[in-house]
Amino acid sequence: MLLIEKFKPGGECTWAGCIPSKALIQIAEEIYTAKKYGHVEINSGEILNEVRRLTEKAHQGEAVEALTGAGIEYMNGTAEFVDTHTIMVEGQEIKADHIVISTGSSAFVPNINGLKEIDYLTNENVFKMKTFPKILLLLEPEL
Fold first, then answer.
1. Pairwise CA distance, residues 34 & 53, whole Å
2. DSSP state for residue 125 in the 8-state scheme
3. Is a pLDDT exceeding 80 seen at residue 143?
4. Burial 96-126 (b: 16+ CB within 10 A, else e)
5. Residue 102: predicted pLDDT
6. pTM, to two decimals
7. For the CA atoms of the chain, what is the radius of gyration?
């Protein structure tokens, strides 16, 4: 079995979705509870460092070493189909009877005048910040 990933194993869920967002929610709940009993000083840099630490910890189960230990070969790169049973990855042709595609997701960026000229945040970069911004505006598309 071969796993191909253009970033690192775990994909969007591990690095920009499920894991870091749930870590942040867990920390927020702990802060909320602590505030019931007195003043709590919030250091957003420490919070984001903890989110990254928890993400790295969760990633250990899908790290290259863990994959290799489970008999899964790992390649870093982007796959392109040559035909129904052949893909090309970083110049290497790979043939297989079965190919599973798991593309993940990417952030929807609304078409708002001027948005592309500013440093906006999405799930792909918000957990990489050093600290939280003082003001944060959230946009949620209507589904």
1. 21
2. T
3. no
4. eeeeeeeeeeeeeeeeeeeeeeeeeeebeeb
5. 84
6. 0.81
7. 19
